[in-house]
Amino acid sequence: MLNVPFRVSPMLASLIDRPFTRDHWVFEEKYDGVRILAYKEGTHVSLISRSAIDRTSRYPEIVAAVGKLRAVTLALDGEIVVFDSRGISRFQLLQQGRGRPQYVVFDCLYRNGEDLRSKPLSVRRAALEQSVKTSEVLLWGARLAADGKKAFRIASRRGLEGVIAKNLSSPYVEGRSPEWLKVKVHQEDEFVIGGFTQPSGARQHFGALLLGVYADDGRLRYVGKVGTGFDEKTLGSLHRKLQGLIQARSPFSSDLRERDAIFVAPKLVAQISYGEWTEEGKLRHPVYLGLREDKTPKEVVWQNSKWRRTQDRPR
Q1: How many CA atoms lie within 13 A of 289 on its CB side?
Q2: Closest by CA position to 291, among listed 249, 240, 253
Q3: How big is the CA angle at 88 (ends 85 and 94), to the nearest 5 degrees?
Q4: Which of 149, 196, 218, 274 has the most CB atoms within 10 Å of its CB?
Q5: Is 30 an annotated catalytic residue?
Q6: What's the pLDDT at 308?
């Protein structure tokens, strides 16, 4: 049988506030890239994003490398990344097309006719290491240390995005799970673009993007604006995308004090780095990194407990 008889949405990690150590858990590097499921069916390979978009044609070198693997059928889960000169994955480099994309594989869901999703992670990882020969294009997800707190110290020292903790006995389930947990070293997340401001001075196209996240009640909450991280090319391309989304009504549930705000339909997701959350629930020192074409706006539901506390205060 040359077909993988399923397509899945990826298993996602739940955010926690601090690192921990626990028996029968492993602690892996958290990568800053694009989540991709790779399906090898005979000589045919397809690369599918977490939002079910086919990205096969975008990464021909990765397709060729997966196609050369010996297994007849495979379903792999991993992240396509670009590393900087220090070996740190940077979403911005991938988004801008700078550097060589590599596929970091950390799970194997199907191999040679066997569905591995109900098997524990320890079995799936062994199948991965048996099936995927590492190369300049294909890598295994890196495990940092057996101790979770030590793994976090390593991630902090190296400047990694964070640590993913995984229960070795866990099956593979679609969606967010408490069996995979993530701890971030740097503050970096996705936000929905709900509008923009007019440019001032020498800047063209727009001044800043207005950002939001969806709360538990399904409403888009305004969390601030970002006006840095753009070059002229990015300003122009983003402005063209925004023009077709302009609408009269604000998509945000909260009031804005931006007099020159132009609102757009909440269709685009931006990757933003930032310093911290203010007491008012706004982003401090945000920097634009790129668009997330692999994520839908409704997926941008904030998990950070500090942000939740600011939203729960009486107004």
Answers
A1: 22
A2: 240
A3: 85
A4: 196
A5: yes
A6: 47
